[in-house]
Amino acid sequence: MQETINKKPEFEFSESRLHRLVKTGISLLIYFLIYYFVFRNKPEWIIVITAIVLLHETGHFAAMKYFGYRDVQMFFIPFLGAFVSGSPQKISQRQRVITLFAGPTPGIIAGLIVLAIFLQTGARFYYQLSFFLITLNVFNLLPVTPLDGGQLLENLYGAKTRIVQPVFLMLTGLLLFAVAVTMGNPYILILVWFIITRIRRMLKVMSVRKALERDKVSYKTTYKMLDDQSYMAIRAALIRRVPALNGLDPETAGADEDRVVKWVQRVLDAPVSADLNRGQIIFSTLVWLILLVAPILLLLKFFSFRLFFV
Q: Which of 33, 64, 111, 127 could pair with 86 in a Cys bridge, judged by C-beta atoms 3.0 to 4.6 Å apart?
């Protein structure tokens, strides 16, 4: 990267298809090996959980490819799942809603089908499989960014939904901590750590955005369209509020701007093409609520500790 003075660094984000495939393959291999090391006494469930995550992310991947996203790639993260990234040709409400639903919906439908098979056969494996298919995909529909549910509500209703997200995350973190202590499972604490990190990051971003609004600096744009003056203003606000950036010069962009750029991209809130009418927004919200609540209620109706743990 070239040294820049009071200018936004320009990045070439495009990667070759082979490079993206190699990154996906390596992350999947590491993901699987770490799970095998931790849960080697249950290798069949490592395969099942990996397959469920892969099904979920393949839905996002297929939707992005259908809508013409560039540089689409999948990356796996142990204990946290996976994500699919890509560059859209346009940022559209309709496309984002379909893309977000494309992840959890196939898994939930598959879980309900497997639950029906269990009801016909009584085989415990099908019950356990349906449990994982449903719960892992419903978890992704919780109204917290970066989960699909949080992104969906932000896409439908804008930044208003962000106000309740830190509170919801805190409650989820406390619940998971209680579960970890009760079950004596330290691996659940990894999720708690992730939630704490997420809350801190969200609060810092909210603080920076408020400061930018006071200074009349626009952050509602993409990184590509961001001008040099606004970049430096956002950069300075971040350096004042993010401890990891405190040692940097707020007035001059240096040769190593990678960390700053990542934070700037978190602050930016690119405008979305509002191509959904009120009825479609309400319909999308109802679909989200049904997918979030109905499968869990149906699963709980047939829940049995004996079937799950014995």
A: 64
Angstrom distances, CA of residue 56 to CA of 136, 171, 247: 9, 25, 40
Q: Which of 135, 125, 131 is nearest to 44 (CA)?
A: 125
Nearest CA to 157 out of 270, 264, 276 is that of 276
- CA–CA distance, 97 with 63 (Å, rounded to integer): 10
Query: What confidence score (pLDDT) does residue 42 get?
Result: 73
> Rounded to whole angstroms, what are the CA distances from 54 to 51, 96, 164, 288, 310?
5, 20, 30, 21, 27
Q: What string of DSSP letters covers 110-166?
A: HHHHHHHHHHHH--HHHHHHHHHHHHHHHHTTSS-TTSHHHHHHHHHHGGGGGGTHH
The span from the CA of 122 to the CA of 116, in Å, is 10
Gap between the Cα atoms of 131 and 115, Å rounded: 8
The overall longest dimension of the chain from CA atoms, in Å, is: 68
Tell me if 235 sits within 8 A of 219, measured CB to CB: no
By the 8 A CB rule, do 84 and 72 touch? yes
Q: Which residues contact 263 (CB under 8 A, 6 or more apart)?
A: 238, 242, 245
CA–CA dist 125, 118 (Å, integer):
8
pLDDT band at 256 (very low <50, low <70, confident <90, very high): low
CB 31 within 8 A of CB 78: yes
Query: What distances in angstroms separate CA 170 from CA 61, 95, 175, 195, one per listed residue?
Result: 30, 30, 9, 8
Tens-place pLDDT, residues 29-56: 887 777 777 666 777 778 888 889 889 9
User: What's the CA gap between 118 and 299, in Å, rounded?
Assistant: 11
